Structure formats: structure tokens, C-alpha cells
Amino acid sequence: MRKYLNVFYIALILLFLYAPILTLVLYSFVDTPIISIQEVFNKGLSFGLYKKLFTDGDLMKIVWDTLLLAGIVAVLATVLGTLGAIGIHYSRGKFGKSVSAVSRIPVINAEIVTAVSLVLLFALVFTESRSYFSMVIGHLVITTPFVVLSVIPKLKQMDSSLYEAALDLGASPMRALFTVVVPEILPGILSGFMLAVTLSLDDYIISAYTKPQEFHTISTYVYGAMAKSNANSSLPALRALSAIIFVVIIMVVVVGNIRSRKKEAK
Amino acid sequence: MTEQNTQKSEQKHRKFRIAFSRKQLCIPYGLFLVLFVVFPLLLIVFYAFTDADGGISFDNFARFFTNTTTLSTLLISMLLALATTIICIILAYPVAYILAKSKLNKGGTLLMLFIMPMWINFVLRAMAMKDLLTLLGIFRFNNYLNVIIGMVYDYLPFMILPIYTVLVKMDKSYVEASKDLGASSFQTFRKVTLPLSMSGIASGATMVFMPTMTCYVISDTFGNGLVTIIGKLIDEQFTTFQNWNFGSAMALVLLVIMVISMWITGSFKSENNARGTNI
Question: What is the model's pLDDT at position B273?
């Protein structure tokens, strides 16, 4: 009885979380600006929105720009954050502690406050406060601390004698770091990287404040189109994009799951 | 003898170099934080306490704390955030508990299902939720209700993860000991499991409370333009009215609220389990 209750509750919450996404997926096959049941019967099911997505040059540019930005940000954040985490972990003094404390500020701080503070900074330093550079910095500020947070636990779990053993066997500190420490903490680095990609893709507020005027990420484009409630916008085509992202994610999770099952079986 | 000595000094030298080089790795990140986190926050403080001409003034704060619109917006934001946080705790705790304790979550697959929605753009998801609520006919009742539904929808995973992490790590022998000593399941939960998972609830609350007070994307999407939260007021000062001093003053008020809420939740000794970093 209790087991069924558990399953029922989990299913209910999953329904709450997935219903909107499934609506998006379903209506990605209905070429209409309005989501309503009637429209399904009026317009019927088609791949029209998918065609629109891939043939709309502006929209494809926005998608690629967003992905490229997330990629650049995630690589930089992972390098900066991993080095930072190693530094924080091995420095016992006040320096490491204060870096780690400051690193928590962007995590807890309201995004609008972070965004506004960066606007003040860039307006002070540059004549044109919005640039690709300022946008990358903005994204780094909100993503790098999460890389640090995901790497530090792995460093704590690591056997510290491994590094010393490598040094005793004649490896240079640099080499010991790359051949011993980095492979040990790789799961943390990878999840940090993934987290940075997600946060960058998802961000609206920081992008809106730091991006160049003409540049658009998916978030700023959608929000802008929504605010204008522009009927002719390419907004519906983004349902097709969400559906594609969703299917890709499911595949990644399923493949990852099968692989981990195989590992367990071995 | 001399050979030994040189070896020793060499060792000493090496040890010094090692310790130095590893700590050094922190320097780029430290510089980055000073330049792009600490200094910009100081700029907020500077702008908050100056007027448009650059002279020192407290007018911004006087304006904030004497104006009923700003004060009621602050109050409404806090109430909305509080309601969202409480609903999130109530909904998320059983989920985290079931995931952590039962065999349903074998290999963490089920947990992945709760994280996956976060990988789809949140503006798109919010829009989809609004469309769905409209479709179901729920959307027309009350704008504040809509906003709370939207916020809970968006931030629920952030509450599930930290609670789950704490529950999974919890030493099972405490629960066994409690049951051996004759406590009922409910008593065990109330006296053992719940207090031990407070740190998870606390870090979940920090991940939900501040964003819900300020994320105007959700309140704009779900509130039909009639629900204004404090984040929106700051946004307006920077985009519409171009009054950076007043905007900075409001940002500083938010910073103070953040520090207070950190101080409160910090007493639960929260660990680094924000936004699924431990997965």
C-alpha cells in the first residue's frame, strides 16, 4: 500500500514538472501561434514548425549563437573553476578561505543584483558597456562558482597521498597534477562543465544586461517576442527546438543509464 | 653525511615549491572574483549612497523607505517568496525522501527525471506552463496564484536536490537506533530524520527564496503584467528610468536581505549542495 502511495506521489510531481514540456512537444507538431485544443483539429499535425525552425536563418543564428556562447563560457568556467577549486583545497590559510567565501556570493546573490553590478562596472571601464566580452564575463560570474562547488567535493574524497606518491616517484608538480589529480576529480570537472552549459543556456537576466544590443540568446529572444506579443514572430518554431532538445536529453540519459547498468553487471 | 644533507635540503626545497605551486592555482580565480564580483558590489554601495551628481546622499534610501509603492512591492515579493519556498519544501521533501529511501530510484535514474526539466530553457518552459494553465482554465483565477504556480514549477528541482543529497548521505544507524529504542516511525522521522535534514532544507530555501523575490521573468510571464516584484523595480530603474543611484540603493537593500537570510540559514551549517553540484 505504502509503496503504491510513493509511486503515485512521485508520478504526480513528475506530471507537474513534465506536463508543460509535453505540451510543448505535442504542439511542436501543430503549426499555430495559439496553444488550444481547437487548433489541433483546425490545423492538424504536421512538421511545419520543424521546417520553419531549420529554414529561418535568423532563428538558426540565434540557436547557434546561444550554443557557441554556452560552449565558450563552459570551457573557460571549467578551467578557471577547476584551478580555483584545487587552489582553494590546498591552501589552508586565510587566502583560500576568503576566495571560497567570495565564490559563494554569485551563487546566493539575486541575479538582477549581479547583473546590475556588472553594468556599473562595465559602464565605468568601457565607453560601450555592452559587448561580447562583457556578456562572457557575466556568464562566467554566474557559472564558475558552480564548477568550483562541484569539483571541491571530489578533491575532498581524493586520497591525498596519491599526489605525494607521484612526486616521490619523480613527477613534476605540473605533471602530477595532470596525470594524478585531474583524472581523480574528472567526474566533478565534467559535472561542473555540464552545469556551466546548463546555467549559461538558461540564463536570461545576466544576458539581457550584458549582451551587445544586436545579439540575442534564445532566452532574450523568447522573452522579447513574448513581451511584444508579436503574432508573426518565430516563437512557435522554438517549440520544435524544445522538443528536439528534450529528445536529445532523454537519449543522453538513457544511454548513460544503459552504460552504467552494464558497468554494474560487470 | 654531506650527501644526506644535500638530499634533505633538496627535499625541503621541493616541498616548498609544491605547496606554493598548488596554492598559486587559486590566483586567477581570486583575481577574477575581486574584479568581477567584489569590485562591482562595491560600486553598488557607492552608487546607492550618491546622487546623480556624485555627491554623497541618503535620498535614495529615504525615497525607498517612505514610498508606499516600493515598500508594498518589497513586502509582496517577500510574501510570494515565502509562500513559494514553503510550498516547495512541502512538495519536495516527500520526493527527496522517497528517492533517498526506496528502491524506486535504482542507480539514480529517477533522480535524473527530476533534474532533466532544468535542461530546457526556463523562459520557454515558463511560457509552456502559462499556455498549459490557460489551456486547463486555471490561469484566469488570480494573478498571484499564477505567479506562485510558475515559481514553484521553476524552482522545485532546486529544493529536491539538496534535501535528497542530505538524506542519501545520512547515517542509517541513527534511524535504526531510534527504532530499536522503541520510537514509532513518525517519532523517528520527527526527532531524527527531520532535524538531520535541516541543512538540506536550509540550502534549498536559499536557492529558492532569493530568486523568487527577484526573478521578474516569471512574475511578468504569469502575472499578466499586474504583479510587480522587487527585481522588476530594480530592472525598471536601470532600463526605463535610468536612475542608477536609486536602482543601486534597492539592490543594496536586497544584498542586506541576502546577508540576513544567509546568516539565518547558515546556522543550520549548510553544505555545498547547491543546484545538484553533488550529482
Answer: 46
Total structural domains within chain B? 2
Alpha carbon distance A52, A242 (integer Å)? 14
Low-confidence ranges of chain A (pLDDT < 50): none
Which residue, B27, B14, B276, is CA-closest to A86? B27
- Return the minimum-mean-pLDDT range out of B76-90, B104-118, B128-142: B104-118
C-beta atoms of B32 and A150 within 8 A? no
Residues B145 and B250 in one domain: yes
CA A175 – CA B18 distance, rounded (Å) = 12
Residue B53 lies in a domain: no
ipTM associated with this complex: 0.86
Q: What is the fold, at CATH topology level, of the domain defined by A58-233?
A: MetI-like fold (1.10.3720)
Which residue segment(s) compose the domain that B186 sits in?
60-276
Q: Would you place residue B33 in the very low, low, confident or very high pLDDT band (cuts 50, 70, 90)? A: very high
Q: Which of A7, A18, A88 sits opposite B26 (nearest CB)?
A: A88
Q: Which residues in A lie closer than 8 A to residue B119 (C-beta atoms)?
A: 198, 201, 245, 249
Q: Grid cell 613534476 — which residue?
A: A172
Q: How far apart are CA A59 and CA A221, in angstroms?
A: 9
Q: Could you report the per-residue pLDDT of A23-52, keeping only the tens digit for each? A: 888 888 988 777 777 777 877 788 888 988
